[in-house]
Structure formats: C-alpha cells, structure tokens
C-alpha cells in the first residue's frame, strides 16, 4: 500500500546555556522586570555565546528528533532549515547535513521569519505526499541575539536564541489534517531586519553597494494588531479544511511571541487556558525555533500524547502567517 500521508514521529530541541533575565536587562536599558513581564510574559531568554553557532544548536535538536523517530541520520531524504539567521548567507542546512552525517539527504534553507516552521512543515509534507521523499527533517532555528539592538528597549526585551526539530515520515494515514498559509507584503515595513547599503564607486560611472544588515526594527502595536486579528482567522480556515471544530483541538501551539497575543488569540477562539502551550517566559521569542521548541518540551513533559490534535500557528515578518492542524505521532 502506498504511503502518501505524513506523520510527525519525533521532536528535539536545544537552547544555549547562557541566560539573560529581565533583571539583567535593566543594566542595559531603562526597563524593569515588572514592565517586561506584564507586557510580554517573558522572564528570561537564552543567548548564544560567540563560540555557539546556529548549526551546532540545530544539530543537537536534530539528533534528538532523529532518535525519537527511531531512524538513523542516513535514512533522511531531505533536511529543511527554517531560519532568518544562518551562519552563512548562502545557507546553513548543508553544514547541518554534514554534521549529522545525513549523506543521502538534500538540504536547503527556507526563510519565512517567525512563520518559518509552519511554512516548512507544509513544504516538507508536499515532498512526502507526492511520493518524492519518505523521511524529512524539519528544523526551526534562530540566533536573533546577533541582530538585536541592545539599546532599543522595544525589541531587546523580546528575543532569544534556540533550535527545535521534528522528523516527518511517510505514513498510511495522513496526520496533517489541514493547513492555510498567507502573506501580505504591503505590511513588510512593520517588522524588518533590513540590508542597509553604502554606495561605493568601483570605476567612474560603475557604482555598487557594500553594506550590512541593520538590527531588528518593529512596530509593536501594528504587529500585535495583525496577530490578534489574523491568527484566529487562519486557524479557523485550517480547521475548516481539516473538518474539525475548535473544541476538537487538544492543544493550541502558537508562535511564542508575546503572552498577550497568546491570551487574545485563545480568547477569540474560545480555547481554554489549559489547552494553550506557553514557554516564552523562559525563552522569549525565538522566531522559527519557537513552535518546535515548545512542542518538544510539551512532548517530553508528557503533556502532548499520541493522536492528540494540535493547532499550530506562526506569524511574523513578511508579513507572513500560517496554521497547520496535525495529530501528534503515528
């Protein structure tokens, strides 16, 4: 029998050891633990040391996911890395492929900021459903501390570093029940990590630009408004596609951006608090890593059990947003 469904069979995660508390941030910018905690729900975040790389964090998370799925790295056909902060602008997935020893796997990066993991999940599923690949490793990893302005108190309190990974495998029954993805480039200016050019004359009348990327800039109010409006809508659309109702969701797994967004979205959907997965108090906003990091933690704590229905939604720069409804495990 042809296996043209997918199952998510293993998860893993990794965070740097170094912790920065809200108290620590008060030494960098004018803020307070109470101010940060009441507005964001964040108490601390993990920061990668100069010796730590995106590929090293991602490799640890990936090895855990591969082991949990009960396969070997050499069984992998595809490695997808969702990130906005690669170690190498040409891509980091291939470095991870080498570190894992996944000799058979094709590997590439995918960038959709904080929506990256959900976009990656849907992308990975298509390769399996079309019969092209059987075993896919999907990683969401970001080191945003590299790109934060530590003098900008609107953004520096939010972000942290981490990696999460899952293994998707071909399965007789399809465990990805429904999904919906959206983009709106007209709102791109709300959240940026933009390239800033510096003109340089190579020869008379031949000008190029040399520059660098500037720290993250964000219009917090607009991003909050966007998330609270669009996320419940897209979860509804994905549920409709899955032929499910809100009360059939076991867990709501949102991108861990801000506790106020998590609260507002769950209230709009009438999902009780005990069904909402939240770990941002300890890690902050880890961008593409946030959903798989929270997923892996909940699985390892025994909260998420096989066959339970998870509604996952990512949202962020682009602007991009998406939702995927899936059953955990085979």
Automatic annotation (TrEMBL):
Subcellular location field: Cytoplasm
Taxonomic superkingdom: Bacteria
Location of the Beta-ketoacyl-[acyl-carrier-protein] synthase III N-terminal domain: 108-185
Reactions the enzyme catalyzes: malonyl-[ACP] + acetyl-CoA + H(+) = 3-oxobutanoyl-[ACP] + CO2 + CoA; 2-methylpropanoyl-CoA + malonyl-[ACP] + H(+) = 4-methyl-3-oxopentanoyl-[ACP] + CO2 + CoA; 3-methylbutanoyl-CoA + malonyl-[ACP] + H(+) = 5-methyl-3-oxohexanoyl-[ACP] + CO2 + CoA; (2S)-2-methylbutanoyl-CoA + malonyl-[ACP] + H(+) = (4S)-4-methyl-3-oxohexanoyl-[ACP] + CO2 + CoA
Chief location category: cytoplasm
Residue intervals of the Beta-ketoacyl-[acyl-carrier-protein] synthase III C-terminal domain: 240-328
Keyword field: Acyltransferase, Cytoplasm, Fatty acid biosynthesis, Fatty acid metabolism, Lipid biosynthesis, Lipid metabolism, Multifunctional enzyme, Transferase
This enzyme's EC code(s): 2.3.1.180
Gene Ontology biological process terms from the UniProt entry: fatty acid biosynthetic process
Function: Catalyzes the condensation reaction of fatty acid synthesis by the addition to an acyl acceptor of two carbons from malonyl-ACP. Catalyzes the first condensation reaction which initiates fatty acid synthesis and may therefore play a role in governing the total rate of fatty acid production. Possesses both acetoacetyl-ACP synthase and acetyl transacylase activities. Its substrate specificity determines the biosynthesis of branched-chain and/or straight-chain of fatty acids.
Subunit structure: Homodimer.
Note on domains (UniProt): The last Arg residue of the ACP-binding site is essential for the weak association between ACP/AcpP and FabH.
Name of the molecule in the record: Beta-ketoacyl-[acyl-carrier-protein] synthase III
Native organism: Chrysosporum bergii ANA360D
Encoding gene, per UniProt annotation: fabH
């Amino acid at each position: 029998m042809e296996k043209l469904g997918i199952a998510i069979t293993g998860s893993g995660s990794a965070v740097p050891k170094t912790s920065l508390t809200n108290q620590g941030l008060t030494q960098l910018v004018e803020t307070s633990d109470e101010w940060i905690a009441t507005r964001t729900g964040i108490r601390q975040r993990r920061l990668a040391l100069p010796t730590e790389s995106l590929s090293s964090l991602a490799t640890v998370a990936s090895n855990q996911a591969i082991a949990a799925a009960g396969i070997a790295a050499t069984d992998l056909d595809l490695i997808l890395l969702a990130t906005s902060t690669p170690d190498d602008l040409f891509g980091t997935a291939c470095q991870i492929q080498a570190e894992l020893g996944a000799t058979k796997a094709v590997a590439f990066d995918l960038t959709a900021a904080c929506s990256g993991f959900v976009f990656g999940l849907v992308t990975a599923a298509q390769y399996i459903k079309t019969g092209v690949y059987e075993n896919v490793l999907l990683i969401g990893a970001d080191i945003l501390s590299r790109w934060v302005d530590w003098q900008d108190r609107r953004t520096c309190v939010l972000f942290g570093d981490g990696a999460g990974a899952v293994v998707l495998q071909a399965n007789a029954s399809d465990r990805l029940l429904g999904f919906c993805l959206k983009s709106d480039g007209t709102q791109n200016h709300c959240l940026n990590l933009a390239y800033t050019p510096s003109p340089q004359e190579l020869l008379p009348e031949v000008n190029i630009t040399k520059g660098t990327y500037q720290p993250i800039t964000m219009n917090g109010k607009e991003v909050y408004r966007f998330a609270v409006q669009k996320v419940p809508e897209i979860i509804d659309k994905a549920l409709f596609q899955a032929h499910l109702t809100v009360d059939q969701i076991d867990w709501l797994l949102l991108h861990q951006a801000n506790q106020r967004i998590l609260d507002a979205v769950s209230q709009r959907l009438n999902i009780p608090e005990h069904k909402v997965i939240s770990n941002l108090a300890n890690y902050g906003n880890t961008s593409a890593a946030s959903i798989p990091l929270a997923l892996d933690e909940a699985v390892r704590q025994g909260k998420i059990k096989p066959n339970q229905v998870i509604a996952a939604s990512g949202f962020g720069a682009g602007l991009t947003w998406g939702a995927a409804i899936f059953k955990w495990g085979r």
